[in-house]
Amino acid sequence: MTRQNNRALMLLIAGFTLWSGAFVLLYALQALGCAYGWGEWHRPILIVAYVVSLVPLAVLAWQRPNKTGEPQTSLSLSALWANRAAFVAGILVYLPVTFATACI
Asked: For this UniProt entry, which segments traverse the membrane (predicted)?
């Protein structure tokens, strides 16, 4: 496996790995806020975690898996679009923390 394919493979895995980590973090913050009664600080903490979790996903979504001048492979294209899918999934799945009822 070439160095270019190693980089593309790592980027292919990175997007949804970050997405799942952010998902667990948001769920944990939501549960902790309800359990310990964070009150009016609960929603802002969730929103900050939402925005912070989108930053690395956005960086990955716009990062080219191959350097300038290198030919694109199917693996590098897959990494690019998988990271973009992870970013869009992050926006859509995490968005309810901004408006939905946090504690039932």
From this structure: 41-62, 74-95
